[in-house]
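User: I'm preparing a small set of examples for a lab meeting where we compare how different chains pack in three dimensions. I only have the primary sequence for this one, and I'd like the structure in token form so I can line it up with the others. Please keep the answer compact; I'll paste it straight into my notes.
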Amino acid sequence: MPAVPRLPLLMLAMLPAGAHAAMGQVASNYGFFAQDVATSQALSMFSNQPSATYYNPSYLARDRKGALSAGYLYTDQELTADPQGTPTDANGDPVRIVENDVIEDASNYNVLLGFKSDLSNMLKSDRAMVLGFMLGAERSGERILSFSSESSQTAQSFRYGQQSLFLGLGAGLNVVPGFDVGAAARITLAANAELQAFSDLGGNTGFESLKVSAKPSIQPILSGTVDWGTVVCPGKRGCWLTGVETSLAWRYESELSANVDAKAVVPNAVATPGLPLALATIDAYTPETWSLGLMYKMHKLRVGFTGEYQMWTGLNDKFAEDTIRDQANLEFRDVFIPRVGFEYKASPNFSFLGGVSYEQSPLLSLQSTDINFVDNNRTVIGLGFSYLIEQALFLSQPVRFDLGYQYHILEDRDFRIATTRNVGNEEGQQQPVAGCGDNARCEDVKAGGYSQAVNASVHLTF
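Assistant: Understood. Below is the structure token output for the 462-residue chain.
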């Protein structure tokens, strides 16, 4: 039987090694800047920083000052899948699939940049219109366009791992006093690769033709904010609605995807048009999300509540068409995430921040053969502080420094790791294990661990 040319290996070599895909992203997993991290994103909808471009673009109009923001986000996690006993095959021999209970033990860092500028002079009326821009890159751009999507015979994290390039652009507009609207766009890339080559049976190619392209995909973000004290009782003192604000935001689903179309002609083995290899897969995904926020601002304290409804069921159909993950029959559910946070102004220049959220896992499947995603419900706790420097060196405007810390408590959850591959160093036909599915071997594990993040941010105004 003639050997099959090694085109799959060639295509895999085009992808960066050592980067693990994840359906989460910086904005949803941790938050952009330190205030987002410290409040567990509970006050992100009421932030006048450039990160409002993503969370609530209408809030950009609440502050006409231009700003340049830079953040450094350091993350560290240890994710585990602890085997629960040792299964045996049909012959009674022990079957060990999970050799190491730590599935991810790594740190990472992201550089985040934000910018906003007042465009109100473009309008004839005295209404605020502010433009915002956000950019996030993993490892200072070292992995700016990295891509990874893979099957696995052992557990892999559904949410944590590689954080893809983030680009966002939006604007906020004041419609009437107390009512603002905003629109933004998140920009992602869809990569396409075409490969044609002649190959011998040893996998040596010639007359190659490789074309790689990427086109942008734009996903909308819409929001509105109401300052009830200004709308209901403008100019009145002692109004009970003074300091009460509500916001509603909608973000459409977004994804980073890749399509590979390859053909090889092997003389005397595979004739024209050649041996086809077609791959279509998703590297990262953000679900369609509705967010409703409520904030009450007092003299020194402001408290915020945000409820997010994330529609993860949209991923069911996408994974069914994913060449790498379609065999796993993954199933997802929509989830509601409550977030509560505060900011206490201890002095005119110093503030304490804190927040907590509970995030249910959208992953329903407890077994996904040859993919083996694991995910946990998590409680997220954040703490931080903000310090305003009014006279900073040669600058004419104040500079604010923020520091935020976040810790993720992952609830233990039972999964079944299953694979149809040969396990370990064994060769030849291996016996399947009863109850694991057709021709599969499996092992029960308890997934757990923790994740933490530190964010330091500097904000310059102009």
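A couple of notes for your slides: The chain has one domain: 35-188+216-252+286-461. Residues 35-188+216-252+286-461 form a domain with the Porin fold (CATH 2.40.160.60).

User: Perfect, thanks.
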